[in-house]
């Protein structure tokens, strides 16, 4: 039943996004980079794992692991296959070559982890605040399996406050929502602690939901 509801919500958001261009002018929508909002609704798109920094680390660990494997294979056969270096500088297979082999295997598994995160776009989704129906909907993509699609609904009456876990850097931190029944719910990615203008976003959302916001230092 929940899967059917999630599908209907996704379909509704797609249709709503497609119709935004044709919304009458008397409805004032504020456009943002990762979402849109009106007087009664706020759609906040949450970016997932398909970020430039993740592509960098996935490629870096992959190339680094292949390089380590090349050195370990060269040490096993006692020569350089591509003549990049002289055979006099090839390291012995025991124990350095064996150690590099384990490092290469660990690097490949780490690179595979990064590429799977990117491929499945883990962590992406949306936060939908609906003042008309007094409901907040959260949707996230997880790993394939039972929790591939994570959907959560919270009544606005259950929202107690917003909590901004601030960083020493200006305009950065992680924004949370404190609720009575569901506890603390992160509204911004917890692994990305430098979202731009997150403090301003917190204040705007606090006014939109008519709830207080608390700023606590990150420890």
Short description:
This protein is an alpha+beta fold and 219 residues long. It contains 4 helices and 10 strands; from the N terminus they run αβββααββββββαβ.
Write a structural description.
The chain crosses the membrane at residues 6-23, 55-77, 97-122. It comes from Vicia ramuliflora. Belongs to the Ycf4 family. It is found in: Plastid thylakoid membrane. The structure is a single chain. It contains 4 helices and 10 strands. By secondary structure, the chain is α+β, with helices and mostly antiparallel strands. Strand 8 (173-179) and strand 9 (184-186) form a beta hairpin. It is elongated, with a radius of gyration of 24 Å. The two termini are 40 Å apart.
Could you list some keywords that capture this structure?
219 residues, 4-stranded mixed β-sheet, 10 strands, 6-stranded antiparallel β-sheet, alpha+beta
Helix/strand class: alpha+beta
Tally of extended strands?
A: 10
How much helical structure, as a percent, in the residues? 25-40%
Rg, rounded, reads: 24 Å
List SSEs in N-to-C order.
HEEEHHEEEEEEHE
Number of helices: 4
Distance between the termini: 40 Å
What characterizes the major β-sheet?
6 strands, antiparallel
Shape annotation: elongated
Look at the structure and give the mean pLDDT: 78
Strand arrangement, major sheet: 1-2-3-4-5-6
Percent range for β-strand residues = 25-35%
Runs with pLDDT <50, length 5+? 1-32
């Amino acid at each position: 039943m929940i899967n059917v509801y999630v599908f209907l919500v996704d379909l509704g958001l797609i249709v709503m996004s497609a119709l935004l261009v044709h919304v009458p002018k008397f409805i004032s929508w504020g456009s943002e980079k990762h979402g849109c909002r009106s007087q009664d609704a706020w759609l906040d798109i949450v970016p997932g794992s398909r970020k430039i920094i993740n592509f960098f680390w996935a490629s870096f660990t992959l190339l680094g692991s292949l390089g380590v494997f090349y050195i370990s294979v060269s040490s096993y056969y006692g020569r350089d296959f591509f003549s990049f270096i002289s055979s006099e500088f090839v390291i012995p297979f025991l124990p350095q070559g064996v150690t590099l082999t384990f490092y290469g295997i660990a690097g490949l598994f780490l690179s595979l982890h990064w590429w799977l995160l990117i491929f499945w776009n883990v962590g992406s989704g949306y936060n939908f605040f609906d003042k008309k129906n007094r409901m907040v909907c959260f949707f996230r993509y997880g790993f394939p399996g039972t929790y591939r699609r994570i959907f959560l609904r919270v009544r606005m009456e259950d929202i107690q406050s917003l909590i901004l876990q601030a960083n020493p850097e200006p305009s950065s931190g992680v924004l949370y929502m404190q609720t009575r029944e569901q506890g603390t719910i992160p509204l911004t990615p917890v692994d990305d602690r430098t979202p731009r203008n997150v403090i301003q976003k917190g204040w705007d959302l606090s006014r939109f939901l008519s709830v207080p916001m608390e700023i606590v230092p990150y420890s």
